[in-house]
Amino acid sequence: MHNNISGGGRGRNMMSSVDFYRRVPKDLTEATTLGAAMSLMAIAIMAILFLSETAAFARTRIATSISLDENTAPQIRLNFNITMLDLQCDYVSVDVWDALGTNRQNVTKNVEKWQITESGERQYSGRNREQRAVTHEEHDRTLEEMHEEDGVHAVELTEQNFNQFVADNEMAFVDLFAPWCVWCQRLAPTWEKFAQEVKKLKMPVGVGKVDCMAQANLCRAQKVMAFPTIRWYHLGQPISPEYKMDRTVQALVGYSKRKLEMDEKYKEWEAKAVDTSQEEKDEKRKLFQAHRPEHPACQVSGFLMVNRVPGNFHIEAKSKNHNLNSAMTNLTHIVNHLSFGDPMDRQSRRTKRILKQVPEEHRQFAPMDGSSYFTKDFHQAYHHYIKVVSTHLNMGKSRSNQLMTYQFLEQSQIVYYETNNVPEARFSYDLSPMSVVVEKEGRKWYDYLTSLCAIIGGTFTTLGLIDAILYKVLKPKKL
Q1: For the chain, which terminus, N or C, has the lower number of CB atoms within 10 Å?
Q2: 190: CB partners within 8 A, 6+ apart
């Protein structure tokens, strides 16, 4: 029995020897006013530090890092919506080129065009379809041979007699051409034969032609953008749209007959409409003439699937049936929207929640939106240079709080062209091999607990030392 007790005592003594928290008997301790003050101060300091540490633990910060882009998709989506302020939709061509050798002309897939009226309203022009090649008539005689054998029937117009010609002829049909234009050369004998046919049929139509190289000022005043421009005039005023159908004698004669027939119908209606206002008569005349003013503005929008290599897409004036007049090609444009990647649904709660947490400097998803690029002179156009970087927005661990998108930086400058080259609005892009990771960071729970322990222990120990020192200093001396 004695041995058991001794053995148990030895075990307790061994355990007691490693006791870090040994008790001091209460009768050996002394409470002082200084100690109470230091205790209250310790409690206050610990409470303040505890609240500050808890607030810091609950607060998160946005951190950015750079990593290798792991996106293995071979293509990227390019979204665009651009308004050309001085280029008709018929002449707008969207082309794509890249470093792999891709060269797509007049892309039609997923591209739409909208004609812009003078009041700024959009009129749907349809999808960007492949232009139809017009039919040309073949002749067994050259224009010179026709002139020698049959005489000249199409009137040669100049800056001096043009206005008089369209004023003297109630109805006039004019070919504005350039001698170097291959389409104009093919049209020339047809136009002469058409003028001869008009005289033969005794149609009240004046048929004229203007050499825009010799009469550059006249063609500039008439705003000729392409060669040949075949334009109908009524009472000295041009009627829109311009003639863009087949270039055969039969087609030209048929078009002229329809114009004359509609004019006769209008005159019959006007004779009966005695009490009609002049404004209503003007509207009715436009209706009979099929007059639709062509404001030279076009909004082209859609998306392109481009290879993930350096390349560009550009908008230029181009036509299958015309040679563009480089002297009158103005590529002034407004970038309504330009972005890369799948479009973000900014109305969804998920996207709003994520973007709300992202700083403004990391939201460069479409920095060109709403920008205008005006060119004051001809033979120049803006070129845009774009650096694209994939961006991962990680605002949480779950996929619902993560979003992958693209940011880009842009620089623009005016490029000057030779007088015989047609300018183009070019958007050159280059994708970075690196990606930016924007994520929300918070403190780990074990960091928080460590800090709390440090606050409690550090405050207790530090103020305990201060209390001991002050007690020694302020303790009254024994006599």
Answers
A1: C
A2: 136, 137, 139, 247, 248, 249, 252
